[in-house]
Design a protein that fits this description.
Helices cover 52% and strands 11% of the residues. It has a six-stranded parallel sheet with strand order 2-1-3-4-5-6, sandwiched between helices.
Amino acid sequence: MLVVDDEPIIRAGLSAILDSQADLTVAGTAEDGEEAVEACARLRPDVLLVDIRMPRRNGLWALAELGRRGLLGPGRSQVLMLTTFDLDEYVDEALAAGAAGFLLKNSSYEELTGAVRAAAAGHSTLSPAVTRRIIEGHLSGRQRPSDQELARLRDLTERERDVLRLVGDGLSNAEIADRLVVSLHTVKTHVSRMLAKTGCQSRAQAAVLARNTLS
């Protein structure tokens, strides 16, 4: 994985925590968004842990640039956004741009390492505070869906719409399989096709789309 933060002490601390885990390896670090994108292109890490606020190119810029270069998404790199600020616009923009999760810097070691493992496995993860706000309808209640958002649903089958809706409800693949009474393999296929058709680069991004359009 790649650790991206403009503060050397934080980079070193996060790297030490993650490298101490037997199943996690820090392949490199970067101090701003531009370095992060170049390092990702070179190292192709499974997960990037990226601070949002950095000088020159920030984490949101890096996230968008990774998506533009085709480095982000299922089977490629996943991005976890890390910040001290629990601000709505950061959460919305990060998730809408394809972040796999959003963690506050006061998260516990267990939350941090668990989030990295979840992102590496292709799952979404959010801090509990962010999850609660989304469940309470923060995203779905902002405004009517745009024409661009609705257009992303155009090619979905009814079953793929069902899967998107359940992803928006925060269900795992196993829970979706139980709800729809189908095999786990079938759900994985539906999720992959749904992500491809909607252009979503992560389950979290799909969840935002679902809450904006299907709620």
